[in-house]
Specification:
This protein has about 350 residues and is an alpha/beta fold. It has a single domain, classed as Alpha-Beta Barrel (TIM Barrel), CATH 3.20.20. The chain contains twelve helices and ten strands. Strands 1-2-3-4-7-8-9-10 form an eight-stranded parallel β-barrel, surrounded by eight helices. A two-stranded antiparallel sheet has the order 5-6. It comes from Pseudomonas knackmussii (strain DSM 6978 / CCUG 54928 / LMG 23759 / B13). Its cofactor is Zn(2+). Keywords: Metal-binding, Transferase, Zinc. GO terms for molecular function: 3-keto-5-aminohexanoate cleavage activity; metal ion binding.
Length: about 350
């Protein structure tokens, strides 16, 4: 992305789009009973509370009544319908990793089959977005979950730690291409969850080949364990290399969440918060998803940036927009055109 001399001035920046992930599938309800909803009514109300606090994008997972993460698409349909009715302007972003949580103690966290994962394109009512990973990657969330933060939680249990440390994100070329095809056919926008520069480069190749024709909403994920680590240089390199027309959100974990959100908002980018990313604040105290949203709002206001409402967030994300061909996709995302036969150097737009 390019930055001009006045790019850090708030009057030249988009309004802040706050993403919240309040369902935290890696935690069990007893880990934070004050803030982990279990019943369907509680899960819908959590979305309402987050929207009223200032979040306009809801990263959605669903729980069963026993508190475990649901793998049933019917439960996703039910929660999406409830949220759509309660807060119609909120952007519903379904987490593409719908089987993060082990079903029973000590069971390895397994992903559903590829065919079932593709069924996310068939959810009813239709979500606005489904998150899509690029390239199969290790996702060892335990690598940076320090023991002092896990004390007294379900993740203190060695069997759970073993399960979560061995997770991978299966996102090979054939699956990604088919998944993008199905999402676009159903006018569901993919939100790309990128683990580092290699994933961004692969995504650019997919765009240049015409596999994906739409806006680029990207989340950089700095959580370590196979993804980029929470190092500002990793984030800055990603921001530097991202296309000018991309919309970028920062995601990290635990005490790294607030610093990366502050960096993102200072640069005109966007934050993500919620108990899926951290259940503690900077002083080690439990911090609810709503409290984290309120903190982002305060920081945004201190930086002079306004917080987007639901309709404004939809415009910034270009929800519902698709492009007719590769050339339009490249142009609208601020990318250089593809090289024509015989053309030298980097092609420039007229």
């Amino acid at each position: 992305m390019q930055f001009f001399d006045d790019s850090l001035h708030p009057e030249n920046q988009e309004k802040v789009v706050i993403t919240v992930a309040p369902y935290g599938p890696e935690w069990m309800p007893q880990d934070f009973p004050e803030d982990i909803p279990v019943t369907m009514d509680e899960q819908v109300q959590k979305a309402v509370d987050c929207y009223e606090a200032g979040a306009t994008v809801l990263h959605l997972h669903v729980r069963e009544l026993d508190g475990t993460g649901s793998k049933r698409l019917s439960k996703f349909n039910e929660l999406i319908a409830g949220v759509r009715e309660a807060v119609p302007d909120m952007i519903i972003q379904v987490g593409g990793s719908i089987s993060f949580a082990p079903e029973s103690e000590g069971e390895a966290a397994k992903w559903l089959s590829d065919d079932t994962r593709h069924m996310l394109a068939e959810l009813t009512p239709k979500p606005d977005q489904v998150t899509v990973a690029i390239n199969t990657t290790q996702m060892n969330i335990m690598e940076l979950l320090y023991p002092e933060y896990l004390k007294g939680t379900s993740l203190e249990h060695p069997a759970y730690q073993a399960a979560y440390s061995e997770m991978t994100v299966p996102a090979g070329p054939a699956w990604v291409e088919e998944h993008l095809k199905r999402l676009q056919a159903n006018n569901i926008q993919p939100h790309f969850q990128l683990t580092g520069m290699h994933a961004l480069e692969t995504l650019e190749r997919l765009v240049r080949k015409g596999v994906y024709k739409g806006p680029l909403n990207l989340t950089w994920i700095g959580i370590g364990g196979g993804f980029d680590g929470p190092n500002p240089f990793n984030f800055m390199n990603f921001v530097h290399r991202a296309p000018d027309g991309a919309c970028i959100t920062a995601e990290s974990l635990l005490k790294n969440v607030l610093p990366f959100n502050m960096m993102a908002m200072a640069m005109g980018l966007h934050p993500r918060c919620g108990i899926e990313d951290t259940i503690i604040g900077q002083h080690g105290e439990r911090m609810t998803s709503v409290e984290q949203i309120q903190q982002c709002v305060r920081v945004a206001h201190e930086l002079g940036r306004e917080v987007a409402n639901g309709q404004e967030a939809r415009a910034i994300y270009r929800i519902g927009v698709q492009y007719k061909d590769v050339e339009e996709t490249l142009r609208m995302n601020g990318m250089a055109p593809n090289r024509l036969p015989g053309q030298k150097s980097v092609p420039q737009r007229a």
